[in-house]
């Protein structure tokens, strides 16, 4: 049985996934695609040979059952699994079923292979090393080879006959024709030369048909074994889900239930060593949870009431109770499994040429074989030599390698990405990731932690640092603003006493004052106190570094405090990794140029676009893609920095908010003096551009970019829009995703080169009689295996 999910993929389209059985080569894929595309209301179809999965985009009025019937009429099987709202890991169940189906196929092939090998070995030895043979020995060869060809190889003839009834051809058609032709010619010679042992021995090729079937069976057995390893990623994800959950009843009793029966709002107990059954919120107890299998983070994460937990993660120590928020197919684990399955069932654009060739491959090969036989006869080389060459042509041709070249690499590459916390949307996203040359990055939450922190304290007069901080924290303790919280948090971290100031007064846009003193903008403080020159210099130096600096003062003492959004833990390393891949990193932010430049210098970015409105990020991406703009870019920058429009339109930044009591609207003259960066000054036409973001305001830019990359800590909107999602909030994953994409594309190109080169070289050799049918069968069998094994090398990607 196969999986289907129907989801809205466009305003008027739905996506349905079918599992298709009976496909044996790339020609089958082309036929199924053509059949489905002919159905009314179907807009697009993609059939994946490696996963035996068909993805159909169609209008809402299309009857899914009609699609399965169309596939059945074409000579194949198709099944639908409805999207049960309480189904648990549907995509994983599909992968498990595919594995069991493959193992069942392996068992059947193995039985036929053992019998075929047992009968073919004596057939080959007698034929090759006994000349001439007595008549009884030739009849023995007939008795040994016939069950090999028509019993062990019955599957080839059955599929070929079924395809013929539907007016099509497959890989099995070539095998059946090749082995059948060798048997028919040998049987005819056996009868025609009855009584003449010498002539009879010279014209018998039973061993050819038997060896062809045996080697093809061997190849398919090894191919099936290799395929079972390709779906490991989804199977491993599936294994993360526990089978049972301990539910805490309203009366306090605990009951074990199967996880598919778990419902939203149920309370679930998780003991040490157990896996979390669903996504939820901790309501009781504290513990540490190992999230490495989902995020890749190596250290267990502390969990206490109010914290979120993810299904599939492991409780390290301690017991806790959580309230289930997302269950069944809504869990993070199920979502990841669906994304991986979707990616593995998709097609990369570079596969289109192989698909076009595969669609006509088998009929062309049959015509070449017929022309070869005719050519040998007309040129006087004899019917016997012609039939041997024609059989070699039929057997040597291998459309399977063409059909497997792209999907096997895509399947292993995206699966490995999921294991590393990199979710690739589909084959097109992977190809774009491999070709990206420029990556635009948001600042807040991407290059920085997105949380303001107190970075500097400069004390003057009788204060030391702690005394100045304690004074400032007391004045700020009543505020909920992120900057005020940063000051209070640092004071608490140092163990200082923080008590609310008496007669607290906030002056909007300027600062805070009380009878004990005041804190706020330098210009505001200077209106009531004589500020020493050394304090002014310290303030300006911190501001020049892109930090938010403010002054605290009492009657005799002064202090400068600076707050900044701290650089992400791995941002510097991540940018260096991108540069090592010859990718140009560009910062795009709504923050002011001074702060943006400071962060850019810290992480090693040379190109900066500051003061960019959220809606204009997509325009910046478009410019890097080479699109022309009519408006003046300098004018756009000045408008972005406009004093009147900034508070209403600019991307919110906790450090630059106009509502903060310590910072008023900035002086427009000072703004004009700050350096502006023109986007067009760094635009290079026709670049493949990536965009990294994490917020709702990044979604338009992520959609506009050739490749959108969403950070795992971001919003669902950003993750749905992006082509690549990083489950970890680690910017180093961007370079890792690009490296994985390039490695996968390199593997695909290698597979396609081998598949095309093999057929281009081998078929002419067979036509010229340089390859015996037995050697041709061996080469064909191992051509597909080589493609799969080459793809499996991606499992070792780091």
Structure, briefly:
Helices cover 51% and strands 17% of the residues. It has 30 helices and 27 strands.
Key terms:
6-stranded antiparallel beta sheet, 30 helices, 7-stranded mixed beta sheet, elongated, 798 residues
Describe the structure.
It is elongated and about 125 Å long. It is 51% helix and 17% strand. It has a 7-stranded mixed beta sheet, with helices on both faces. The chain contains 30 helices and 27 strands. The protein is α+β, with helices and mostly antiparallel strands.
Task: Summarize the helices and strands and which ones pair or pack.
Layout: E1 7-8, E2 13-21, H1 26-37, E3 42-48, E4 53-59, H2 64-73, E5 77-79, H3 90-129, H4 135-152, H5 154-165, H6 171-192, H7 197-202, H8 206-230, H9 232-240, E6 244-248, E7 254-258, E8 267-270, E9 279-284, E10 287-290, H10 292-295, E11 301-303, E12 308-309, E13 314-317, E14 320-326, H11 332-344, H12 352-378, H13 383-396, H14 399-419, E15 422-424, H15 427-435, E16 438-441, H16 443-447, E17 448-460, H17 465-476, H18 482-493, E18 505-507, E19 511-514, E20 517-520, H19 522-526, H20 533-544, E21 548-553, E22 558-567, H21 571-580, E23 584-588, H22 593-603, E24 607-609, H23 617-624, H24 633-640, H25 646-649, H26 668-673, E25 689-693, H27 699-704, E26 707-711, H28 716-721, E27 724-726, H29 732-767, H30 773-792
Parallel strand pairs: 16-23, 16-25, 23-24, 25-26, 26-27
Antiparallel strand pairs: 1-2, 2-4, 2-5, 3-4, 6-7, 6-8, 8-14, 9-12, 9-14, 10-11, 10-13, 15-27, 17-22, 18-19, 19-20, 20-21, 21-22
Helix pairs in contact: 1-12, 3-4, 3-8, 3-9, 3-11, 4-6, 4-8, 5-6, 6-8, 6-13, 8-30, 9-11, 9-14, 11-14, 12-13, 13-29, 13-30, 14-29, 14-30, 15-29, 17-18, 21-29, 29-30
């Amino acid at each position: 049985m196969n999986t289907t999910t129907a989801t809205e993929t466009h305003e008027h389209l739905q996506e349905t996934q079918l599992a298709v059985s009976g496909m044996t080569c790339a020609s089958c894929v082309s036929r199924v695609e053509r059949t489905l595309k002919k159905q009314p209301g179907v807009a697009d179809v993609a059939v994946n040979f490696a996963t035996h999965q068909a993805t159909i985009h169609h209008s809402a009025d299309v009857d899914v059952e009609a699609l399965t019937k169309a596939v059945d009429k074409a000579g194949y099987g198709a099944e639908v699994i409805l999207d049960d709202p309480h189904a648990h890991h549907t995509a994983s169940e599909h992968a498990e079923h595919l594995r069991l189906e493959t193992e069942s196929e392996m068992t059947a092939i193995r039985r036929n292979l053992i019998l075929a090998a047992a009968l073919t070995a004596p057939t080959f030895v007698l034929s090759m090393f006994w000349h001439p043979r007595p008549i009884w020995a030739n009849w023995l060869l007939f008795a040994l080879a016939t069950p090999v060809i028509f019993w062990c190889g019955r599957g080839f003839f059955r599929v070929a006959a079924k395809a013929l009834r539907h007016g099509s051809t497959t890989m099995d058609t070539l095998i059946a024709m090749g082995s059948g032709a060798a048997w028919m010619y040998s049987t005819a010679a056996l009868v025609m030369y009855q009584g003449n042992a010498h002539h009879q021995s010279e014209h018998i090729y039973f061993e050819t048909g038997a060896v062809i079937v045996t080697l093809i069976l061997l190849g398919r057995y090894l191919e099936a074994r290799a395929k079972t390893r390709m779906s490991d990623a989804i199977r491993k994800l599936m294994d993360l889900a526990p089978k049972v959950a301990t539910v805490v009843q309203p009366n306090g009793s605990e009951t074990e239930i199967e996880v598919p029966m778990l419902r939203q709002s149920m309370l679930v107990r998780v003991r040490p060593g157990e896996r979390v059954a669903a996504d939820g919120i901790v309501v009781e107890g504290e513990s540490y949870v190992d999230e490495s299998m989902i995020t890749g983070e190596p250290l267990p994460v502390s969990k206490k009431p109010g914290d979120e937990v993810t299904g599939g993660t492991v409780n390290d120590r301690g017991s806790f109770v959580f309230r289930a928020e997302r269950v069944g197919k809504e869990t993070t684990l199920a979502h990841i499994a669906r994304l991986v399955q979707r990616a593995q069932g998709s097609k990369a654009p570079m596969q289109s040429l192989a698909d076009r060739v595969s669609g006509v491959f088998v009929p062309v090969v049959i015509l070449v074989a017929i022309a070869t036989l005719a050519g040998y006869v007309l040129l006087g080389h004899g019917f016997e030599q012609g039939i041997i060459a024609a059989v070699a042509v039929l057997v040597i041709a291998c459309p399977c390698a063409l059909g497997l070249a792209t999907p096997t690499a895509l399947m292993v590459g995206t699966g490995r990405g999921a294991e590393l916390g990199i979710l690739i949307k589909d084959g097109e996203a992977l190809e774009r990731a491999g070709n990206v040359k420029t990556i635009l990055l948001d600042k807040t939450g991407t290059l920085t932690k997105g949380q303001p922190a107190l970075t500097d304290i400069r004390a003057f007069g009788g204060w030391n640092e702690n005394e100045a901080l304690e004074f400032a924290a007391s004045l700020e303790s009543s505020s909920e603003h992120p900057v005020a919280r940063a000051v209070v948090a640092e004071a608490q971290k140092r163990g200082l006493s923080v008590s609310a100031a008496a007669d607290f007064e906030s002056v909007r846009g300027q600062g805070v004052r009380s009878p004990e003193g005041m804190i706020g903008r330098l210009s505001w403080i200077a209106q009531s106190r004589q500020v020493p020159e050394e304090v002014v210099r310290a303030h300006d130096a911190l501001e020049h570094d892109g930090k938010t600096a403010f002054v605290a003062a009492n009657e005799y003492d002064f202090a400068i405090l600076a707050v900044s959004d701290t650089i992400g833990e791995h941002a510097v390393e991540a940018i260096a990794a991108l540069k090592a891949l010859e990718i140009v990193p560009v910062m795009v932010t709504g923050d002011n140029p001074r702060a943006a430049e400071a962060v850019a210098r810290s992480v090693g970015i040379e190109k900066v676009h500051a003061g960019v409105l959220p809606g204009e990020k997509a325009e910046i991406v478009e410019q890097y893609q080479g699109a022309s703009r009519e408006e003046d870019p300098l004018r756009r920058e000045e408008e972005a920095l406009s004093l009147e429009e900034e508070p209403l339109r600019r991307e919110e930044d906790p450090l630059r908010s106009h509502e903060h009591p310590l910072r008023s609207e900035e002086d427009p003259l000072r703004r004009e003096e700050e350096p502006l960066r023109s986007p067009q000054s760094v635009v290079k036409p026709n670049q493949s551009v990536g965009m990294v973001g994490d917020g709702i305001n990044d979604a338009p830019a992520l959609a506009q970019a050739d490749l959108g990359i969403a950070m795992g800590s971001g919003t669902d909107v950003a993750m749905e829009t992006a082509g690549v999602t990083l489950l970890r909030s680690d910017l180093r994953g961007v370079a890792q995703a690009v490296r994985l994409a390039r490695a996968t594309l390199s593997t695909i190109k290698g597979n396609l080169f081998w598949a095309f080169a093999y057929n281009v070289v081998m078929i002419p050799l067979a036509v010229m009689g340089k390859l015996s049918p037995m050697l041709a069968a061996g080469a064909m069998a191992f051509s597909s295996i080589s493609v799969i094994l080459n793809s499996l090398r991606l499992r070792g990607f780091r």
